[in-house]
From TrEMBL, chain B:
This protein's name: Adaptor related protein complex 3 subunit sigma 1
Ribonucleoprotein keyword on record: no
Localization of this protein: Cytoplasmic vesicle membrane; Golgi apparatus
UniProt record similarity statement: Belongs to the adaptor complexes small subunit family.
Gene Ontology terms: cellular component: AP-3 adaptor complex; cytoplasmic vesicle membrane; Golgi apparatus
């Protein structure tokens, strides 16, 4: 055996470890994939071995391969195996691998529940730590539900290290299991005032994260946070809190007023830029939320802007970036304060850092006004020319267009300038935004009627020079503008100077190389132009021009008729035939112009994108009503899909709109008008354009353009936008000069010209009159369109579920599911039904009346029934799992149905809870011993002997579960807490409240103590190995110095030996794996091998350690005597009453008995003590008589019959080993003599 | 919240990837590549913030990175994190690595990615900042390493010896990430405790 282990470890040395793998991959640069695939094969082999070290090594390598992009989900089960190793080294590897590759759909996750729970309650804080860290990465709703309570308990752990992790992970638990938020919140809130800054910071972190998504639920915490803000010195915490306030202020303006002062103080005092920046940010948020009536309002804004300016001017690019970012927030509400820093921002456009340039661009968007638009855009145009990367140039281009077109071209005073800008932009090579420019051109030309003539002229030039645009490649996005150009020239051809020339340009053979949709527009619009040419020549005696035109069409169109594009072909062939027909008529001198023009008559109106959606459902139309007769109900399922249109809503619904009467409609219409009138961004349609819509001939109703003569109408070649800037300046000066003279006149003119649209610009701009009296046509909306909010929250947002009111008191049904004992019948043999009655009557329910009991039983039975059904369902599955796990794992039974069964929440007052809290607060020691860990092995030999029945498996499981829970409980409640059978049964039945509370108990006894250190220990048998005893020793540092290099040594006896690592001598001490800072305690476990267990024995031992002060260190030692009682060889093992009876009848057992006098305690306390201190479990209890059972690590059965009458307790005992029995009884006697 | 932490070298080779949200392996690699492209084409002396790539996050997310010698440290965070705070956190991370590996260099990260993960786990947990105090982080990491050593005990010795022998043939590589010579200025690091 030992040899095998040694051999195994030598083999292992030559396995590839992670470093070897990495080295191998680096040495195989050429055939990396091949090398890795052989490595994966090796790993697969390694994973098949039993040695956990080999497995862990393999998993470690897989984690690395996962990072390189290899899927390692196939090894998920092995990862779980490694996670469940008892060694921290391997556990950590397992959890790391799991955190890297597990996710919600990893199915083995459900196997981990119990393992994680075990690790969470491990006495070693780092076991707990890795489990929490791992869990934070792969927590699923199931895990969250099952473990929420365990994690919540950890939030009050003695170690801040665990507390802060537990607090932090709660956020993930909330996300996955929102029901846990309310029950856990009070404790989370408590942690805001934790003495440890790390825990505090974690709590702030979690609450901030929660509050960010649902701020309104956290408003009540504002005072607490305010206190923290003024008291904390931790910048991380401060930043989080200040950010949180930023989210809260919009909901509560009063909070904002309070905040301004401390925040300004912080701004002035802090030296940390990060804090300063967040303060400024929050002040901005506050100012945004406040109404402008604040007295110190502008001062605060000024302060912010000033500080931001300092940031922007800093040489550190990061600060510059952030400064710009924050500036853009101010801009939204206080544009004027930012506009004064225009110089600085324009300067940032020259920065070499693209992120900064983009931020500056964003700012510019909000900074433009009528006054400076031209100037800013001019600057941007310069940058467009300079820009190297196409992405940045494209970004500039979109920004220019955004800036100009924002809020319905609000800031554009001169549309000719804008058109020239657009035309200039077309000269950009390789831009992707041709489409954007095109749509702008179309939009402006359609909506700004005054500009059409100019636009058409420009577009004609563009078409003429189309070769410049299409020169490079087909892929060139800029040719999109030709689409717009062609359409504008065609649609508004009446403004063309020389339609014939444009027609010619549009029909050039080169056009055929353009994309299909553009050709189609060309063809269509050439027909419009043709119509215009005809019309212009109408009445002219000389018909050469018209004939030339038709000839041109007939010559050029066949090219398009051959086009591969269907659209082009179809249009071309139609038009070609039409023109041929017209030509014939022309030759007969028939006047056709009127008819041809009629083909294209009518005005196109811009339609708002949302118009369709906003069409109200007409009165009387029921969209849900059947169009056809509904299918009769007798129709079979198969036939139903035929009713395509009605399938979706197979039920009749009442007509929805019938009740909306005339009045209501009128009211809505009125409301909408009101709304539009109040909305500054809704540019009202002038009455004239409304008329245009109804009466197409009313083009003349459009307010006539008064063309400013300073603007040249005819631009030779391509226009230069720059000249407009200059002209604009001159014009403005002129206007200003004239203003004094014609002030009255001007004002009148303005009022009539601009109509109602003047309210949104800043006041100072009022005096900049636009060069054109421009009417921007509103986009069409249907009559009665209802204004609606389309912004809805993403329904898949996980935070939506966390929108929970936290101020309501907790209801009973909201408690977290707690791992608890099943009802008593779980302990019963399911074979004999009659005995169930019996067991029920054993329940220690002193105070409950008989009928109450009856009721209870019924309930229990009901519950049991449903549970058993569930269990049966699960049964098969679980069986498999157990086999798979080979007993290493405890079965992952989800017990959510027990939620309501046992209430054990922090707020509840059950005894259990009190004990938990008491233990958590009082116990300075880390968790209680969990040495009985392996006793839940499914393959208990005794079990199989005793219960060779068909339901064996299930019973075992139940038993196991119970043990598991017992253990759990012990751990949970630390050693102060009584637990096990006596009390346990009462807990099982949910009647614990009726019992008197049990006094706290501990199995830890003092081992040795001096002025430096105190050792307490607990000894437990190890069922897994019949010869092992585990001693858990808690070392507590009592002095002011640091204790280190502790060595624990025991003088072995013949019978008992301390297990030492391989290779060390029989007298070597064991190094305690930790150091103790002052006041800290920690627990270590030592394993002893024992030959005979029938006699108690004592071992002498020594602890040596170094006491380290700041200036000196001394070697100290402490002697102790380790007392192995016979009790410590016993292990709590539950037993069914039928099996117990059989055992007693078998006659193999020797009996013995004792009497205890003067025992003055309730019977259930007595039982509890025996159970707790001597590791017994109650088999049956009838009134003041109980049978108890336990087993030794070597399989001796110990049975007790305990009776009490008037302070006298008699214990009759039976055991197959009389010496052991005698000693155990002596020890029991001693226990009770002590109290 | 931190969505992901990536470390890769100047050639885009991943040295550590920690995603706090699940992506499949292919997407992860794509994200690493994309992030590398975004980050690597930036000059030194530009700001350390970057609006996130297409794959990871959206408008709410930012890439915050630092470049040390041969390595890029990239954090992808949402708007609840303070940008400068994260920059400091990266600095703390690197300094912690420097302490734990004694003059950290890329090789340390290459061969001991597991250790880097363990150190990171003490700083960031499930996407939330756990600890920013370097001493505290180092204490916890050391305590865990000590525990690991004590578990390996004597049995681990031969394995360590073998790996020491193997390590002797490591190719000569420039040691030093050279923290002292960081070109990026850290604003007010001492104010962060």
């Amino acid at each position: 055996m030992a040899l095998k282990i040694v051999k195994g470890s030598i083999d292992r040395m030559f396995d590839k470890n992670l470093q070897d793998l990495v080295r191998g991959i680096r040495n195989h640069k050429e055939d990396e994939a091949k090398y890795i695939s052989t490595c994966i094969d090796e790993i697969k082999q390694e994973l098949k071995q039993d040695n956990i070290a080999v497995k862990a090594n393999a998993v470690c390598k897989l984690t690395y391969l996962q990072m390189l992009g290899y899927d390692v989900s196939w090894a998920a089960f092995n990862i779980v195996e490694v996670m469940s190793s008892s060694k921290f080294t391997y556990k950590r590897i397992g959890y790391l691998a799991a955190s890297q590759c597990f996710h919600e759909s990893t199915d083995v996750i459900m196997l981990t529940t119990n393992q994680i729970r075990k690790d969470l309650s491990s006495p070693n804080q780092y076991d707990t730590g890795v489990a929490l860290t791992g869990l934070s990465c792969f927590v699923t709703p199931d895990l969250a539900r099952d473990l929420a309570n365990d994690i919540m308990t950890l939030m009050s752990h003695t170690k801040p290290y665990i507390r802060k992790k537990a607090v932090l992970i709660m956020y993930k638990v909330f996300l996955k299991y929102p029901e846990s938020l309310r029950p856990a919140f009070p404790r989370l809130k408590e942690k805001l005032e934790d003495p440890d800054p790390g825990v505090q910071s974690a709590a702030v972190n979690v609450i901030c994260e929660l509050a960010r998504r649902n701020p309104k639920n956290y408003l009540s915490l504002a005072p607490l946070f305010f206190k923290l803000m003024t008291s904390s010195t931790n910048n991380w915490v401060l930043i989080k809190i200040i950010k949180l306030f930023g989210a809260l202020t919009p909901l509560e303006p009063r909070l904002g007023k309070k905040l301004i002062e401390p925040l300004t103080n912080l701004i002035h005092s802090t030296s940390a830029m990060s804090l300063l920046y967040e303060c400024v940010n929050t002040v901005i948020a506050v100012l945004i939320s406040l109404s402008s009536g604040m007295p110190n309002h502008s001062a605060s804004i000024q302060l912010c802007v000033q500080k931001l300016r300092i940031l922007i001017e800093d040489s550190d690019q990061n600060l510059k970036y952030l400064g710009l970012l924050a500036m853009s927030k101010i801009l939204k509400t206080h544009p004027k304060s930012v506009q004064s820093h225009k110089d600085l921002i324009l300067q940032c456009l020259d920065d070499k850092d693209e992120s900064i340039r983009l931020r500056a661009l964003d700012l510019l968007y909000g900074m433009v006004s009528k006054k400076n638009l031209m100037e800013i855009v001019k600057k941007l145009m310069l940058h467009v020319d300079k820009a190297e990367g196409t992405t940045y140039r494209d970004e500039l281009l979109t920004k220019i267009i955004d800036i100009c077109s924002q809020s319905n071209y609000q800031y554009i005073t001169n549309f000719e300038w804008y058109i020239s800008i657009l035309v200039e932009l077309t000269r950009l090579e390789g831009t992707r935004h041709g489409h954007l420019i095109a749509s702008q051109m179309l939009d402006v030309a359609i909506r700004v009627k005054a500009i059409r003539a100019f636009a058409v002229a420009q577009m004609a030039t563009l078409l003429d020079n189309a070769h410049l645009l299409t020169g490079n490649t087909q892929r060139n996005g800029i040719c999109e503008v030709l689409y717009a150009a062609a359409w504008i020239c065609g649609e508004f051809s009446e403004h063309l100077e020389n339609p014939m020339q444009t027609l010619e340009a549009m029909l050039r053979p080169k056009v055929a190389t353009l994309p299909g949709h553009i050709q189609a527009v060309y063809v269509q619009n050439s027909a419009k132009l043709f119509a215009t040419v005809l019309k212009s020549q109408e009445g002219d005696t000389d018909s050469t021009t018209t004939q030339e035109a038709s000839q041109l069409m007939i010559d050029r169109l066949p090219l398009f008729v051959q086009s591969a594009n269907l659209e082009v072909q179809e249009r071309a062939s139609c038009i070609l035939q039409l023109v041929k027909y017209i030509q014939k008529l022309q030759q007969k001198d028939v006047e056709v112009a009127e008819e041809v023009c009629a083909l294209f008559a009518g005005e196109l109106n811009p339609v708002a994108p949302k118009a369709q959606k906003k069409v109200p459902v007409p009165e009387g139309l029921d969209l849900d009503a059947w169009i056809n007769e509904p299918p009769s109900e007798s129709e079979s399922e198969d036939e139903q899909p035929k009713a395509i249109f009605t399938k979706e809503e197979p039920k009749h619904s009442r007509p929805r709109h019938t009740e909306v009467d005339e009045k209501e409609l009128a009211r809505r219409r009125e409301a909408r008008k009101q709304e539009q009138a109040n909305n500054p961004f809704y540019i009202k349609a002038s009455p004239s354009s409304q008329k245009v819509y109804q009466d197409t001939s009313g083009v003349e109703h459009i307010p006539v353009v008064q063309i400013d003569l300073s603007v040249p109408l005819k631009v030779p070649g391509l226009p230069m936008s720059d000249q407009y800037v200059k002209l604009e300046e001159e014009r403005r000066q002129k206007v200003r000069a004239e203003k004094k003279k014609k002030e009255k006149k001007k004002r009148k003119e303005k009022r009539s010209g601009r109509g109602r649209k003047h309210d949104s610009g800043p006041e100072s701009e009022e005096d900049i009159a636009p060069a054109h009296m421009v009417d921007i046509v509103t986009e069409e909306m249907p009559e009665n369109a209802l204004p609606s909010d389309d912004d809805e929250r993403d329904p898949s947002d996980p935070h939506k579920a966390l929108d929970i009111d936290l101020d309501k008191p907790l209801a009973d049904n909201e408690k977290l599911p707690v791992r608890s004992h099943r009802a008593v019948e779980a302990q019963k043999s399911p074979v004999e039904d009659g005995e169930r009655e019996n067991a029920a009557s054993q329940e220690p329910k002193k105070k409950s009346s008989k009928d109450k009991k009856e009721k209870k039983k019924d309930k229990d039975r009901d519950r049991k029934k449903s549970k058993e059904e569930k269990k049966k369902k699960k049964h098969k599955h679980e069986e498999k799992e157990e086999d798979l796990l080979g007993g290493q794992m405890e079965e992952p039974v989800v017990q959510s149905e027990e939620t309501s069964e046992v209430a054990a929440l922090p707020t509840s007052s059950s005894a259990e809870e009190v004990a938990t809290v008491a233990a958590a607060e009082a116990a300075p020691a880390p968790g209680a011993p969990s040495v009985t860990a392996p006793d839940s092995e499914p393959d208990e030999p005794k079990d199989t002997e005793m219960e060779p029945k068909s339901s064996k498996h299930k019973k075992k499981k139940q038993k196991k579960e119970k043990e598991d829970k017992e253990k759990k409980k012990k751990k949970h409640h630390h050693h102060h807490r009584h637990s096990d059978a006596g009390g346990e049964e009462s807990v099982q039945n949910g009647t614990v409240e009726e019992e008197e509370p049990l006094p706290p108990m501990s199995n830890y006894c003092l081992l040795a103590e001096n002025s430096y250190i105190k050792m307490v220990c607990d000894i437990q048998g190890n069922l897994q190995d019949g010869s092992q005893v585990v001693v858990s020793v808690i070392f507590e540092n009592k002095c002011e110095s640091f204790l280190k290099s502790m060595e624990f040594n025991v003088l072995d006896s013949l019978n008992s030996k301390l297990q030492r690592p391989e290779g060390s001598g029989p007298h070597d001490g064991l190094v305690v794996p930790f150091q103790l800072p002052p006041g800290v305690s920690n627990e270590a476990r030592f394993v002893f091998t024992v030959q005979s267990i029938v006699m108690p024995q004592k071992l002498k031992g020594t602890l040596t350690f170094i006491v380290k002060n700041e200036d000196s260190s001394t070697h100290e030692k402490l002697d102790f005597k380790l007392h192995f009682t016979c009790t410590s060889y016993l292990i709590t093992t539950p037993c069914y009453s039928d099996a117990f009876a059989k055992l007693l009848e078998s006659g193999d057992l020797k009996s013995s008995s004792i009497r205890l006098e003067g025992v003055n305690m309730p019977f259930h306390h007595l039982l509890a003590r025996i159970c707790f201190h001597h590791h017994f479990s109650v088999v049956e209890r009838i009134d003041s008589c109980a049978s108890m059972y336990s087993r030794s690590i070597q399989g001796h059965h110990v049975c007790l019959l305990v009776k009490t009458s008037a302070q006298t307790v008699s214990i009759d005992a039976k055991c197959d080993e009389p010496t052991l029995l005698g000693n155990v009884l002596d020890e029991i006697k001693q226990t009770f003599s002590q109290c | 919240m931190i969505k992901a932490i990536l470390i890769f070298n100047n050639h885009g080779k991943p040295r550590l990837s920690k995603f706090y949200e699940h992506y499949n392996e292919d997407t992860e690699q794509q994200i690493i590549r994309e992030t590398f492209h975004l980050v690597s084409k930036r000059d030194e002396n530009v700001c350390n913030f970057l609006e996130g790539g297409m794959l990871i996050g959206g408008s709410d997310y930012k890439l915050i990175y630092r470049h040390y010698a041969t390595l890029y440290f990239v954090f992808c965070v949402d708007s609840s994190e303070s940008e400068l705070g994260i920059l400091d956190l990266i600095q703390v991370f690197v300094e912690t690595l420097d302490k734990c590996f004694e003059n950290v260099c890329e090789l340390d990260l290459i061969f001991h990615v597991d250790k880097v993960h363990h150190i990171l786990a003490e700083m960031v947990m499930g996407g939330m900042v756990l600890e920013t105090n370097m001493n505290e982080i180092i204490t916890q990491v050391d305590a865990q390493n000590k525990m690991e050593k004590s578990e390996a005990g004597i049995a681990g010795a031969p394995a360590r010896a073998v790996s020491a022998v193997k390590n002797m043939n490591l190719p000569e590589m420039p040691r030093n990430i050279n923290i002292g010579d960081i070109s990026i200025k850290v604003p007010n690091l001492p104010s962060f405790k």
